[in-house]
Every structure is written in structure tokens, then in C-alpha cells.
Amino acid sequence: MILSDRTIRQLLRQKTLGIQPLDDGQIQPASVDIRLGDTYSIAEETSAGIVYLDSEVRYRTIRAQSYLLLPGQFVLATTMEYFRLPNDLTAFVEGRSSIGRLGLFIQNAGWVDPGFEGEITLELYNASRSAIELRAGRRVGQLVFARMDAPAQNPYRGKYQGQRGATGSRIAQDLELQK
């Protein structure tokens, strides 16, 4: 079940759900607006020009109040907000329609798992033919919360727990665990 603004406010008051910083105006009828933080990460090019999924990827991370996203460019960004989800809530990121209509695609790579705590890394892609200026504090998407039928038996405690800033892929850690 998708949570309403009323339920989101109640969970925030009870401190069951944590979102910091949060302005009341960010709470929408069935979501919470998320804002861009000031950290961006760009995957460094490899000498072979190929990203291998079984190798560690290196990133160049910058902090800036604005970032110019060129046409066809991909960048990781972070939310301004730090989230703390209880073990019976999950969430997913949706882009804002007004931003998508400009050619800026915003998502994250899956669900925000129950038990997750941290800033959310966003994957941004400029599909337009013009550069797009990104600014810290700009509302770019929304987080939609859904209540699970029961608390997770194994809430999230993974490699991105507690992340701050635009966090690059840690796929190489998965490979180490498989060995």
C-alpha cells in the first residue's frame, strides 16, 4: 500500500521514519519531494574504453552548488536528504514530470530497501540536446513509500548502508563475496 501524506507525517512525528532535512512543503499527497545535494560522481574512463562488470570502477567525485550536465552525459548525484526507513517500509524514486519533460532522466537502481539509512544516490542522464544546469537544493524527484505486509526478516544492512554523497557502484564487493 502506498502511503498518504497523512501517514507520512504521522510516521515522521513518531520518528518511525526519518528524513533530514525536510520542509513540510516537500510532503505531497502520496510522496515526498527529494532535492539534489551538492555531491556528484563521474565514472573515470578506462584505458580500454570499456567498463567491465567484474572490475572495480573508479570515480571522480566533486562537491559543487551547481553542475552542468552535458547532452548524453551520465552522472551520479546525491539527495540533500538523509533517510532512515523502518523495517516494514520500502520506497522507490520517481522523477518529477516537469524535469523529465526537459530531458533529464532521474532514477536510482532499484528499491530503497526496508531498514536502509543514508542519502540516496541518483543516476542522472541528460537525454536532451542542450546542457542542463543542476543546482543543489532543487527538487528533482519524489520518494514514494509503500508499507510491506510484515516487517522484513532481514532488513537492509548492505554495502550502501549509511552512505553520504554520490556513491559509485560497489559491484566489485559483490564479486569478492562470491569467491
From TrEMBL:
Matches recorded under SUPFAM superfamilies: dUTPase-like (SSF51283)
Pfam families noted in UniProt: DCD
GO BP annotations, alphabetical order: dUMP biosynthetic process; dUTP biosynthetic process
Residue numbers binding dCTP: 96-101, 113, 121-123, 142, 156, 159, 163
Cited InterPro entries: dCTP_deaminase, dUTPase-like_sf, dUTPase_trimeric
Family: Belongs to the dCTP deaminase family.
Protein purpose: Bifunctional enzyme that catalyzes both the deamination of dCTP to dUTP and the hydrolysis of dUTP to dUMP without releasing the toxic dUTP intermediate.
Protein name as annotated: dCTP deaminase, dUMP-forming
UniProt source species: Neobittarella massiliensis (ex Bilen et al. 2018)
Gene: dcd
